């Protein structure tokens, strides 16, 4: 339905987002020598995404994805290049914070727009009884694509930074954005998806997506991002203490290896194992792995435990996105998906700053205890979602 060329284009379009947070963190740390300042700039980038993502989603729902993506790609490419210049210009921290804000606000929302496109295409073609199954398959695929990008993104950052310099990852991200996001914007699925949602809006009056259940899902996604953020900064401090700082991105990519595996597994789990129950079960897996992180002392054990944590995170991400897709009102899919994706990014960015400050002041062990707190919160939110009255569509 989407065409063979769609999938590589959509995948590479989301890769810069996976590179930007880690790239900003490593560049600022390289030029200013402070994990705390690097985490703060990354947090501001996340705040920019949180502020802009819902607006971008609403614009895409109203006027279509194509030109929204083109404008975002142009601005984001310029912002990434400008940030590199600022980082090496020995400017005060404030201009870097502004640069990070622009990077986050202009980030093209390729991943949520891809989800919206595929769900719209499936809804237009499929029998209503198949929509739930197809939606779960789409969310599993999209989570695999996201997590694969999160594997490749940090690895590329690590390789480019260690071979060319700390400036290289952000310039590479800008180049990828300019090429692939533009191709993604002009792919025929953009028009097809917009037409599908327009037809649904004529058939069903638009409803507000802002429900208590959605806010709980957004909070869960924010907490997953917080887990990523605190893990990244605490791991950075751990690797610096081990004398292997340049390998941080590669080891951090291990977190996504497990996520990819279980994002695939989620597509074949029986339907009687409900999405709400999956959030509880796999959130507990994340918590169990997180509890081990503060006490690990070797790189090999750290890598293994990150993979285990990633298994739980991948399953939770699929569950959250699937629950959000099922609950999105007609014509509001892009809005809901950008809210979810934005919550993930802002959670990662804010807790990158918090984790960076804690790790710099007290070491990686205390930073990993913050990671434990985010994992525990994820489980509590899952239990709260399970306690809510079961929705009509599940």
UniProtKB/TrEMBL annotation:
The keyword Ion transport does not apply. PANTHER family: MAJOR FACILITATOR SUPERFAMILY (MFS) PROFILE DOMAIN-CONTAINING PROTEIN, PTHR23542. Pfam families: MFS_1 (PF07690). InterPro entries: MFS, MFS_dom, MFS_trans_sf. The lineage of its organism: Bacteria, Bacillati, Actinomycetota, Actinomycetes, Micrococcales. This is MFS transporter. It is found in: Cell membrane. The chain crosses the membrane at residues 7-29, 35-55, 67-87, 167-186, 214-241, 247-267, 279-296, 302-324, 336-359, 365-388. It comes from Leifsonia kafniensis.
């Amino acid at each position: 339905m989407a065409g063979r060329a769609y999938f590589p284009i959509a995948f590479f379009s989301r890769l810069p987002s996976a590179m930007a947070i880690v790239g900003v963190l490593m560049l600022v740390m390289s030029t200013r020598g402070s994990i705390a300042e690097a985490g703060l700039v990354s947090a501001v980038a996340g705040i920019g995404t949180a502020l802009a993502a819902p607006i971008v989603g609403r614009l895409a729902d109203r006027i279509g994805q194509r030109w929204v993506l083109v404008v975002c790609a142009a601005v984001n490419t310029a912002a990434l290049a400008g940030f590199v210049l600022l980082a090496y210009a020995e400017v005060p921290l404030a201009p870097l914070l502004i640069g990070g804000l622009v990077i986050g606000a202009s980030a093209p929302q390729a991943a949520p727009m891809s989800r919206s496109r595929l769900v719209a295409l499936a809804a237009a073609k499929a029998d209503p009884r198949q929509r739930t199954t197809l939606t779960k398959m789409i969310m599993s695929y999209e989570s695999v694509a996201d997590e694969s990008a999160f594997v490749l993104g940090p690895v590329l950052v690590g390789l480019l930074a260690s071979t060319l310099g700390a400036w290289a990852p952000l310039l590479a991200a800008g180049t990828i954005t300019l090429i692939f996001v533009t191709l993604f914007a002009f792919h025929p699925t953009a028009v097809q998806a917009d037409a599908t949602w327009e037809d649904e809006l004529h058939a069903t009056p638009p409803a507000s997506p802002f429900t208590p259940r959605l806010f709980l899902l957004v909070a869960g996604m924010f907490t997953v991002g917080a887990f990523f953020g605190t893990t990244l900064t605490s791991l950075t401090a751990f690797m610096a203490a081990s004398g292997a700082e340049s390998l941080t991105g590669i080891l951090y990519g291990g977190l996504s290896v497990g996520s990819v595996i279980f994002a695939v597994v989620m597509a074949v789990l029986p339907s009687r194992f409900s999405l709400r129950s999956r959030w509880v079960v796999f959130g507990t897996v994340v918590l169990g792995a997180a509890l081990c992180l503060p006490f690990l002392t070797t790189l090999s054990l750290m890598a293994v435990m990150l993979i285990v944590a990633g298994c739980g995170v991948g399953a939770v991400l699929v569950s959250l996105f699937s629950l959000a897709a099922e609950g999105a009102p007609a014509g509001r899919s892009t809005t809901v998906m950008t809210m979810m994706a934005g919550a993930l990014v802002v959670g990662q960015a804010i807790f990158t700053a918090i984790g960076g400050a804690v790790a710099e002041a007290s070491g990686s062990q205390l930073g990993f205890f913050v990671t434990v707190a985010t994992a525990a919160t994820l489980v509590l939110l899952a239990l709260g979602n399970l306690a809510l009255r079961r929705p009509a569509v599940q």
